[in-house]
Amino acid sequence: MEITTEIINKLADLAKLEFSETETENLKKDMSQIISYIEKMNELDTENVEPLIFMTEETNVLRKDEVKTSITKAEALQNAASKDSDYFRVPKFIEK
User: Fold this and answer.
1) Residue pLDDT, tens place only, 36-67
2) For domain 5-42, is the CATH number 3.30.420?
């Protein structure tokens, strides 16, 4: 498959990106290398290779979901630049 400037421009339009001519040429070269690598991999005989389901032998090592307090309100507000009783004070950034 040949990567053309039209393909790069179509992909850029779909992704809402803009590329200079130099960037377009670099992308064409990079994408051509990627396509040739994939075509090379397609030459491999994988007839008797079982699909890999997991990368490791471990499966879903998760902790138990427990509700616990890790920090108190006072500790959370301790280093606040500005606070008001139980809340952080921040500058107003939405105007009505």
Assistant:
1) 999 999 898 988 988 877 777 777 778 888 88
2) no
Token readout for 13 is 């339009």
**b/e map 71-86, b = 16+ CB within 10 Å:** eeeeeeeeeeeeeeee
The span from the CA of 96 to the CA of 90, in Å, is 17
* C-alpha pair distances (Å), 34 with each of 16, 29, 30, 38: 22, 9, 6, 6
CA distance 37 to 68: 50
| Gap between the Cα atoms of 1 and 30, Å rounded | 13
pTM attached to this predicted model = 0.49
Domain ranges of the chain: 5-42
Cα torsion 70, 74, 80, 82: sign:
positive
